[in-house]
Amino acid sequence: GDSVTQMEGPVTLSEEAFLTINCTYTATGYPSLFWYVQYPGEGLQLLLKATKADDKGSNKGFEATYRKETTSFHLEKGSVQVSDSAVYFCALSDGAGGADGLTFGKGTHLIIQP
Amino acid sequence: DTGVSQNPRHKITKRGQNVTFRCDPISEHNRLYWYRQTLGQGPEFLTYFQNEAQLEKSRLLSDRFSAERPKGSFSTLEIQRTEQGDSAMYLCASSPGSFGNTIYFGEGSWLTVV
Is beta strand B5-7 parallel, antiparallel or unpaired with respect to B19-24? Predict the structure, then answer.
């Protein structure tokens, strides 16, 4: 079945550091890939997405490129801020069985220190 | 723009009691999803509706769980004879319905079974 693997947390960085959160996936067909963010006490918010190979999703300074050859969708940001502290989830949707429900990774807790 | 609304946000119940959660999706979204999230894990798919039809149910959805969407608008998730293992956050989400469309999440309903 489908699965998403992302790096274990917590990841602790200083403000303005470069961020990479690794994500790899296993899926049938050609999935769409997503990064969701969950701030403390809030629900999941879509951060960015990519629907086909070599697409780059971007939002709020975050980027991720859909790499079919390595089945990866790593999240990057050039200079993190304290306000980026949250839990980040990588997810995929492959439309299996007619549903476009999401399969999530376990999440990576990001802590940015001033 | 009202997002996905869930209530109650928090529920504490004794083992063996029944609980019901309500979800109001984004207006005119014809797909509605329920997920469950436990601490330290990513959300897990439970079930989804296309309008009023429940089209897919996860193996996670035991016989004690039932979901309805009677008029294709709001949905309810009922858990009968709750067990301590049911303690989790129950997330509702909705989408316009086409493959690859963004799925929007509510803030979730926390259930604690004591």
Answer: antiparallel
